[in-house]
Amino acid sequence: MKKHLFPLFLLLIGANAYAQQDFFALVGKDSPNIVFNDFRAIDATNGISGEQIFTETSTAKVFSQGRNGVVTEDKNTYNSSQTASIATLAYDAFNNNLVYMPMFSSNIYVLNTKTKEITLVENNIARVTSCDINSHITRMATGYDGNIYAINNSGTQFLQISRKGNQYAVNDLGIIKDDVSNGKNSFTMLETGFGGDMIADAENNFYVFSASGNVFKVSTKELKATFVGKISGIPENYSVNGAAVNSQGKVVIASAKGAALYEVDLKSLQAKQIAGEQNLHVYDLASKYFANDRIAAGNILANLDIYPTRVDEQYITVNVNDKSVRGTLTMTVFDLSGKAVMKQNLPVKEGSLNQQVYLKNLVSGAYLVNIINESGKVLLNKKILVTE
């Protein structure tokens, strides 16, 4: 549950303003309860709303994965793509989809931001009931491996939503428990750990920003939540309901209470207010960026690149068109743990290269492609996602 949703104030829509198309908000109405209004693009630097992607009044074309056909939904029920109780959102940048779940339902919805078509993923893995606050799914984010992850209020369900081809599958990774050092700052207690949102880092761990302003680092390997600290620099009654990483690697947080956006430094947890709209009622935020991302710089040279970044046929192409590049380049592929899993030399002739590279024996997942020249200078760092 997005707890402490106090009476909300008038919604400033600003739908025609410019906004980044890789940073999104789940926005609600002026109501003491959770009432879905729209998904919209957000300029996370200036705190300004942009295009409304999908609203409560949009025509919803819903295709059921389980029933293999178009279905008609009643938006007045909990099990609907436009129900009032939507409180989680993640952005799948590889497929340009927004993924979300109603808070009182186990249904998962995948919205194509271009076509506006919706895929309904029914599942019996998520155990959600409207009367059990512990079971409500309130935190969701895309992991560094390209999968979507969601956590319920009490941490008893840690869901992984993966895609193979056009089919989605749901897996429960287990129960997240408190680290012994947490003391009274418990991840699994209502006042200290419930609600809020989550972000991912480049090691495929997660940071949960609870509604109370407490921050926990969740280890996916140990299924353990460690208290990091409490956000400072926000109003005392600020309910943290949305969190996502911006293009500078800072965390942007938002509140469902009709407040300003804040930018938070993950190391110091110090927040500073972002200029722009002051009364947005945000239930969740989502972006394509990750905390502590080693490859934020991307390309060092404008005329050197690799494609595609989503690899489903085991090949990538390395392209160079820069006369300053000479000799033999070395391409190394690292997995998420930092282990080199393959290496290949790439001879450049007269500043030009267009070579296809076979990524043999790489299992599905995210990898870092690093290219250096003969003197050891890094020319490119770029993430790819290998799929079957």
From TrEMBL:
Source domain of life: Bacteria
InterPro entries in the record: Quinoprotein_ADH-like_sf, Secre_tail
Ranges for domain Secretion system C-terminal sorting: 306-384
Pfam family for this entry, one: Por_Secre_tail
Signal peptide span: 1-19
Keywords associated with the record: Signal
Protein name: Putative secreted protein (Por secretion system target)
Classification lineage: Bacteria, Pseudomonadati, Bacteroidota, Flavobacteriia, Flavobacteriales
